[in-house]
Amino acid sequence: MSFKKMLTLLSVFLTWCAIGWISSTFILERSGLVILIPKFYKFRFVTILIGVVLLVLSATFFVISRFLKEEKRVSKYIRCKVCGRKVPFDMVICPYCFSDIKERKNELSDED
Ligand SMILES: [Zn+2]
Predict the structure, then answer these.
(1) Exposure pattern of 5-17 as b/e (b: 16+ CB <10 Å)?
(2) Closest CA to 89 of 104, 105, 107, 101
(3) pLDDT, tens only, 68-91
(4) pTM (predicted TM-score)
């Protein structure tokens, strides 16, 4: 699983948690269990605050995941121009036919 997908899933999870935190006291109020909790409005303030913080976190992760590029799997290998075999992209010389893979542009441009 890519990092981008993980961030998106994390933001969905955090949104789900935030909805739970925010709605919890309203559910308690509906069910009539308010009497059991002393300082109910302070409790509600805290739960809503936690929910809002989670929502902000979730939104941040979502925005970050949108800006991340999708990882390319093809780029880990390149094809040798001489023998046509797959070679890891960081190789300089083909391990099969020993021909140069990387064009040495730096050495050629030394004349300037
Ligand atoms: Zn080769």
Answers:
(1) eebbeebeebbeb
(2) 101
(3) 877 665 567 888 888 989 888 888
(4) 0.57
Cα(96) to centroid of ligand 1, in Å?
5
> Dihedral sign, CA of 33, 38, 43, 45?
positive
What residues pair up with 93 in beta bridges, in sequence order?
A: 100
CA distances from 13 to 6, 58, 59, 75, 108 (A): 10, 8, 11, 31, 53
Give the residue, 29 or 110, on which the prediction is more confident. 29
Residue 31 has pLDDT above 70, yes or no: yes
Distance 90 CA to ligand 1 centre (A): 14
Place of tokens 């099969």: 96
81 CA from centroid of ligand 1 (Å): 7
Which conformational region is residue 98 in: left (phi greater than 0), alpha (psi within -120 to 50 degrees), or beta?
Answer: left
Q: Which residues of 70-96 are buried (b: 16+ CB within 10 A; e: fewer)?
A: eeeeeeeebebeeeeeebeeeeeebee
